[in-house]
Amino acid sequence: MLRFTLRNVMARKVRLLLSALAIVLGVGFLSGSLVFTDTMGKSFDNIIGGSIADASVRLTGIDRTSLSAALNIDQRTLPASLVSTVASAPGVARADGSVYGQGMFVVKANGKLLGGTGAPTMALNFNDAPNASGEPTVTIARGRAPEKTGEVVLDQRSAENAGYEIGDTVRMVTAGDQPRVAATLVGYADFAGGGLAGATMVLFDTRTAQDLFMDGKDAYTSIELTADKGVSQEQLVKAVEPLLPKDAEAVTGKHQADEFKSVVDTVLGYLNTFLLVFAAIALVVGSFLIVNTFSILVAQRSRELAILRALGASRGQVARSVLAEAVVVGLLGASAGLALGFGLATGLRAVFASFGLDLSATSLVFSARTILVSYVVGVTVTMFAAYLPARRAARVAPVEAMRDGTARPERSLRRRWIVGTAMAVLGGTLVTTGLMGDGGWGAAQVGLGMFTVLMAIAVMSPAIAVPVLAPLGALYARVFGTTGRLATQNSLRNPGRTAATASALMIGLALVTTISILAASVSASIDSGIDEQFTSDFLISNAIGQSFSPSIADDVRHVDGVGVIAPAQLTSLKVDGDQLNADATDSRALEQIFHITYVSGDAAVGDREIALMEDRANALGVKVGDDVTLSFASGDLPSRVTGIYQSTYVVADAVIPFSTLTAAKVQRADTSIAVNAEPGADKAALARDLDAATADFPTVTVQNKDDFAEAQRGQVDQLLYLIYALLGLAIVIAALGIVNTLALSIVERTREIGVLRAVGLSRRQLRRMVRLEAIAISLLGAVLGIGAGLLFGVILQQIVKDQGITDLAVPWVRLVVFIAVATVVGVLAAVLPARRAAGLNVLRAISTH
Amino acid sequence: MSTHHGRPDSIAARTVDLTKVYGIGDAEVHALDGVTVEIHAGEFTAVMGPSGSGKSTLVHCMAALDTPTSGSVFLGETELAHLKDKELTELRRDRIGFVFQAYNLVPTLTAEENVLLPLAIAGRKPDPDWYDTVIDAVGLRDRLGHRPNEMSGGQQQRVACARALMSRPTIVFADEPTGNLDSTASAEILAFLRDSVRDFGQTVVMVTHDPVAASYTDRVIFLADGKVVDELRSPTSETVLAHMSGARRGPETGQGHAALHTA
Ligand SMILES: Nc1ncnc2c1ncn2[C@@H]1O[C@H](COP(=O)(O)OP(=O)(O)OP(=O)(O)O)[C@@H](O)[C@H]1O
Ligand SMILES: [Mg+2]
């Protein structure tokens, strides 16, 4: 039987290749995602290995496993005297003080910001402190080390990206009191961990670094410890612990590595899940293609299978021979998919590099897990998809060998309605319960529910196809006459096949439509929110929420025509143990610009006061006049709730005065400045003056209401286009499905096509007939998909209504474009099958059996 | 009505030194080996000969379904060799009717739609009188809404005949149209073809193995090994049988086929 299977695979190379292509693309996406995230993990591992010392002394209270910790710049320091204290502890070979400066950026030679799209800039004091493997963390590759104020060293790649050479003057901006820094580039640095994943390393001599980041004090952010030979990291920590002041702690290098890893793993986990969701979608869509291919192949071979049965092959043998074919296809598909994944990972790496995450220093990681997962998934999906066709093959009665096998009765549509309805109910229930529940599990349930509903539509689609295609058929007949009528009849002759092909497209388009509706609703909600609440003339802020020097606010205050300004600093803190983001600001100034509606109480203006957004206050169970505890890295501060305000875009979950930050030892650095013009001032002129006043700081942008709304919408659109691009793969697979179905149908109908040609159908008419059939299939998919997407989109918008997506917007124009795209997909999918049909030799076609 | 109809002496189609070679080298088969025949308009012509003698090849070439290796085919005044695919397609659509042994109806279409298919492809409306005449002649009025798989072989072949006649072609070719049918169904088809010649002036060329079928025709052309070996006018089953044994003893004696003994 195995030989029989292989013979079949070989005999139907092209057809199976097409269905294998679905697996290739799905597995390619899957393995590409895995390879990429593994590579990313590896390069972060390298960074960890390259930078972490045996042990480290640092300040307590900072949650280094949370991403929001980076929002606050801690002002606490370790005194320089502590370095010599710990150096003298038993087992300590050496101790090096590190100055780590946050909020610094390098301005490129062309005036733009280096790494402005998210990769961090690390400003450090230069020393030759070794990492845990004993090599210096940083070495000078060319030039020399920075020795005095006015000298700087950059890592080589950043220097190249910024367009600086040794001897050039490097411009930098900081979030501190000295916002502009200029220094001569004296050397290029090499990092022991290899690449920096796109981060920028800026090195000063210790004195200068302390001037810039330690307020000029002889102090450090942390102290790196190197152990004597034979002293373990734990012993090292134990030895220095008794010598430390109250707010300092010693941790092993291993502990630091674990902290760092947990942050990296969280981020990579999100990224992986995000990419794998799309890989899963591609595989689901691909499995429709495989089901269809195998169904058609089995139908075409029913005579041959019947002969096998007549010769004594058991049902099991027949089914197994079909499944074995699936295994071969799955293996081939997975192998090619792995190769494709490699290419895809390279592509992803390039895409991420363009966003600043540069992983080129690490070669792609091909783990055994990636290979195993790819083969298991490839083969399982193919076998799963081939299961039903295989079962059908086994049910071929031996007498069919004697019949003309092509016209097999469609099974009743009633069963499809029943199964489909049951699935739809199940899917609906899942969505509903998922909405009640919350967190990741709730979202997963909603996703699963929507998937089940889509499958329900797919199951019922042969029954839905007939009424949906009827008006199209009428249109075809009217416009294209007989060719149109033939095309409609061809698409309806096997509704199951047409519907399965269309379903693949349906899934892709349903998701695209849902996402489009959500994005349009988000944009509309942003617009209406901005319309109501953005009452400042200008907003000065950083595109990605980075903080900038408070001196900018001082500059802006003195620009002619400026009336009121309200700087604000976004900060992260805990209120009674709950993590939230608060805006530190001068509420009196802020409320001259923005209208904040208090449900009860009033603004927080005095020391130790806080105002909370309504739903936050409710979640915390506090009311005006209650005392709450604010926790920062430096410790706890008691505060009183003075006001509770309605939900708004203008400020974060809570508002505190600047004095609280000072008390919490958080460095002042603004994240936004709202500006109102003086009454009667020329706003256009003011806009120009504000631009000029901030020209030195590529970290900030000046926006009016329209710019701001546009930037916000731009962010939504960017995400939308990314998702479109990822879902595009599903559409490509669906198009392949149409190609495959048409090609197979043409093989099946060879004789009929011969007859049509013999009675005078021209090649052109024949091609048009195939094309119209393809368009019918893709329009069916489009109608079902857009219908389902509309349903999902509207439901989801209702659900997130409370979370700020207040307006429902359906992008009708875009939906019409999707229909047009579906038509084009149909036309393109028909090209090869149509050419093939038109190229058939009439006489030979007629004499095929 | 086409100019070729009803003029007994005009030539509806002819071949000149028609040759068709399949395969190359050792595997070379001369399916047709210099066939020159004339088909008279308004006549019912039978083509007979042993299996493999080239009958199907001849009608395929004449019906523009196949291209000869050499020699020419004329349909009326038109030489097929000069035509492009598009013109050949139109020729098949408008001037040629073909009836296959295996009916070859389009399974998705009803009987009526099948009959009207060549006209529909051309975007033309049927002449209602002619439509009624043909439908009544084949006796299909009560089957018009049925699909091929709901009809018997004989009924399907009658639909195929009606389809061939509907566009009033210059010439109708039928390759063993009764090959799959019992004697009653065969008689219906043959009577229909003969009546279409007699009553409507249609020109029909029919390939057959059956002397009884041949007796419905006006003229029989005998083929053997790709050559025309004999001809008979106003045939009866007896004269056909006699000629068939004669043809067997034709120029290349001893090449006869067992198939003949079944007749
Ligand atoms: N496509 C082809 N390739 C090779 N040889 C062919 C092909 N078609 C026909 N032949 C050969 O050409 C010769 C004539 O075939 P043709 O079909 O015309 O015979 P026929 O007279 O119609 O026979 P039958 O009565 O069996 O239908 C035969 O020897 C046949 O083997
Ligand atoms: Mg023949």
Concise summary:
In chain A, 57% of the residues lie in helices and 16% in strands. Chain A has 23 helices and 24 strands.
Write the layout of secondary structure elements.
The complex is a heterodimer of chains A (849) and B (263).
Chain A: H1 2-11, H2 13-51, E1 55-59, E2 78-79, H3 81-87, E3 92-98, E4 100-101, E5 105-107, E6 121-125, E7 138-143, E8 151-155, H4 156-162, E9 169-173, E10 180-191, E11 200-204, H5 206-213, E12 219-220, E13 222-227, H6 233-240, E14 248-252, H7 253-300, H8 302-310, H9 315-354, H10 368-394, H11 413-436, H12 439-493, H13 495-533, E15 538-541, H14 551-557, E16 562-575, E17 578-585, H15 587-593, E18 598-601, E19 609-613, H16 614-620, E20 627-632, E21 635-645, E22 654-656, H17 658-663, E23 672-677, H18 683-693, E24 701-703, H19 705-748, H20 750-758, H21 763-799, H22 812-838, H23 842-846
Parallel strand pairs in A: 6-11, 8-10, 17-22, 19-21
Antiparallel strand pairs in A: 1-13, 1-14, 2-12, 3-13, 4-6, 5-9, 7-10, 8-11, 9-10, 15-23, 15-24, 16-17, 16-20, 16-23, 18-21, 19-22, 20-21
Helix pairs in contact in A: 1-9, 2-7, 2-9, 2-10, 2-19, 7-8, 7-10, 7-13, 7-19, 9-10, 11-12, 12-13, 12-21, 13-19, 13-21, 13-22, 19-21, 19-22, 21-22
Chain B: E1 11-22, E2 29-40, E3 44-48, H1 55-62, E4 70-75, E5 78-79, H2 85-94, E6 96-99, H3 111-122, H4 128-138, H5 153-166, E7 171-175, H6 183-200, E8 204-207, H7 211-214, E9 219-224, E10 227-233, H8 237-248
Parallel strand pairs in B: 3-8, 3-9, 6-7, 7-8
Antiparallel strand pairs in B: 1-2, 1-4, 4-5, 9-10
Helix pairs in contact in B: 3-5, 4-5, 5-6
The structure holds adenosine-5'-triphosphate and magnesium ion.
